[in-house]
């Protein structure tokens, strides 16, 4: 499978003499490092190696692929060999390794042996469950009269939804052992202050002057998009902000795709042909193909459609561990930006000086 559109740079990346956009947050390698794999590279090769059994197990159960168990074994063998090669020579296989290279190689291995969307069944199941819960989740938020308190509640909902991530091996095992409800996730968030906690600044800016247009790079299917992001986006719409939801072009883990998100948005809209979501006008909500095909995000390559729709935005939201923490946490933009996600790898928690399952909300306001 290939991307369906050409790639262009995201137009809101800051362009300045003292700033060069680099997507990866953790410095894996410096120019002075020897040609051997660095400690950071070795650690992350091991992170991706730990994920192989869960990917193999899901691939084995993909009944859309003939001889799925045999192909899953080939995937595991091929990807494991690539990781061994990167460990021995970090400049092999398109390296040196970082989250973008490692996830790209994993997707290549899956597609080479015939898998297109191994999490499709799981995504559909979680979307169905979350759609049934959506009206009540929205009603609970609407019942909070104080806008500042409602914003905080919605942000917590984004975190609660974002914990459902099958790309993190520990979480994949947890969800296999016992299903976690959205309500449980909301109650079990780690206490504030979070490892990066700009929630108060974000609330103050929203209360002071709502944005005219927001671009939100979304993350996972199920509770993440339906119970976390959509109520958050609905509140932006209610306050007069145009909203662009940017979703992946191609499947990757349990990330929501553009086609899947279009279908979900149509299902949450009110009936009888109304362009609204539970009473809030949604005519200013736009779903766009981001051009991305990974759970991480390199903003030098997005779809032309997204680039065009984003030019006049005054808020960029990057959501999820891959898009907002492992990549783009320190990215700078020409407009306000919000990076929001949950830390689901111990290696990221250690780098940030936080806890596993800690929350990150980094808000940067650009003063005109």
Automatic annotation (TrEMBL):
SUPFAM superfamilies: AF1104-like. Pfam families: ARMT1-like_dom. GO terms for molecular function: hydrolase activity; metal ion binding. Residues 62-360 form the Damage-control phosphatase ARMT1-like metal-binding domain. It comes from the Eukaryota. Its cofactor is Mn(2+); Ni(2+). Keywords: Hydrolase, Manganese, Metal-binding, Nickel. PANTHER family: 4'-PHOSPHOPANTETHEINE PHOSPHATASE, PANTOTHENATE KINASE. This is Damage-control phosphatase ARMT1-like metal-binding domain-containing protein. It comes from Riccia sorocarpa. The lineage of its organism: Eukaryota, Viridiplantae, Streptophyta, Embryophyta, Marchantiophyta.
